[in-house]
Every structure is written in C-alpha cells, then in structure tokens.
Task: structure prediction
Amino acid sequence: MTMDLADHMEGPSRNTLLGIAQVIMLGELAVNRALDQLDPTE
Result:
C-alpha cells in the first residue's frame, strides 16, 4: 500500500513513503527469519 501511495506523491513525501516501505519489508524479513528459526521446515 505504501508503494502505491508513493507512486502518487512527489518530492520529500514520496521519499518518506519509500523509506517507510523499506522498513516494512525489513520487518517482514526479520519476522520470517525468526519464524524459520522457531519452526524450521525440513
């Protein structure tokens, strides 16, 4: 959703939204990695 919203923005607001989107993706990767360590699939 943030990527879609960033497509409609310009300037600093767009850059802020793109940064937020990156933080969200990093959070998702961290959660997935933690879940893999708790319950590894073999």
Q: What stands out?
A: The chain has a mean pLDDT of 89. The two ends are 33 Å apart (CA to CA). The chain is about 80% helix and 0% strand.
